Amino acid sequence: MNAVLSIERLTKRYGHIHAIDQLDLEVEKGSIYGLLGPNGSGKTTTLGIILDIIKPNEGSYRWFGNEPSHHSRKRIGGTLEHPIFYPYLSAENNLRIIARIKEKPFDNIGEILKTVELFDRKDDKFRTFSLGMKQRLAIASALIGNPEVLILDEPTNGLDPQGIAEIRNLVIKIANDGISVILASHLLDEVQKMCTHVAVLKKGKKLYSGPVDEVLAMSDTIELGANNPEILVNALLDFDGIKNLHKEGNLLVGKCAEGVSASDVNEFLIEKGIVLSHLNLRKKTLEDQFLEILHQSK
User: I need a labelling partner for 161 at 20 to 30 A (CA). Which of 55, 124, 132, 256 fits?
Assistant: First the structure.
């Protein structure tokens, strides 16, 4: 069983508003799974349900192949929004309090502080920390108890570029240590750089889910070049696999029909005796795909 989390037809209503609407998801072990969507898309509500803080109206979810239980909850660490720390206590003492609440030993608090790169500040009061340091301490609090899954809600929210990079590198480091990560974010660039998988949500509905690499590979714009452009144009006019053919500088650019790959185009042209000097599929960014997915859902 590779799935650490399976969600089926999960629904949460607040009056006539569907915060989550028939949501299906599966998170594989070892992945960094990003829930991506604008404000009000249901990201935080979903995390609240799987952390057993919010009760759904319908549907179900399973941790590690089993119904959620007190035992499975012990295998999960998470933070929703900002955890409450005592400003006048040190980082280490704040984590000791959280360890007591979780009924966990203090043995690995030092190692956790090293993981989040706060060990040198372990004796400093929380109120002296920057926002980025506070976010890293929040992640440290979720790591108490050696969880198998880490759940984070907008971990880079409000941070400057340096702070964002620090949290991104920390999340990747944690995942490389064998912990599966589920996070909510509205920052497309960070999801692209950090996550292995993504689900796009809008008004509680899932519009897309899959590996980030597959999303980025979804491209239908093709560039073609040959030593004799006129022969190339005439050949492509007889090929139904490319639409909207037009010139851009020295290149011909068109849209591939559904199911048509760059290799299909190249094979067709070789049969016509045409050797290409240029063949390229334009890569879309996650932002391009995200906006396209949202537009298609209107």
Answer: 124
Is 41 in contact with 203 (CB distance < 8 Å)? yes
Structure tokens at 39: 């404000």
Which residue do the tokens 């609240």 mark? 48
Residue ranges of alpha helices (H) inside 6-160 are 43-50, 70-73, 91-101, 109-115, 131-143
* 16: Cβ contacts below 8 Å, ≥ 6 apart: none
Does residue 202 contact residue 292 with C-beta atoms inside 8 Å?
no
Overall average pLDDT of the 177-206 stretch: 91
What domains are there in the chain, each with its CATH number? Answer: 3-212 (3.40.50.300), 220-282 (3.30.70)
Q: What is the mean pLDDT of residues 114-121?
A: 96
Highest mean pLDDT among 13-17, 25-29, 204-208: 25-29
Identify the bridge partners of residue 59 per DSSP, sorted by sequence position.
Answer: none
The C-alpha atoms of residue 204 and residue 46 are separated, in whole angstroms, by 9
What does the pLDDT read at residue 80? 79
Write phi, then psi, for 7 (nearest 5 degrees): -115, 130
| Dist CA 125 CA 138 (whole Å) | 14
Q: For residue 295, name the pLDDT band (cuts at 50, 70, 90).
A: low
Q: What is the pLDDT of residue 113?
A: 97
CA dihedral 208, 212, 214, 217 (to 10 degrees): 110
- CA distance linking residue 163 with residue 137, whole number of Å: 13
Burial of residue 200 (CB within 10 Å: 0-12, 13-18, 19+) is: buried
Rounded Cα gap, residues 126 and 204, in angstroms: 36
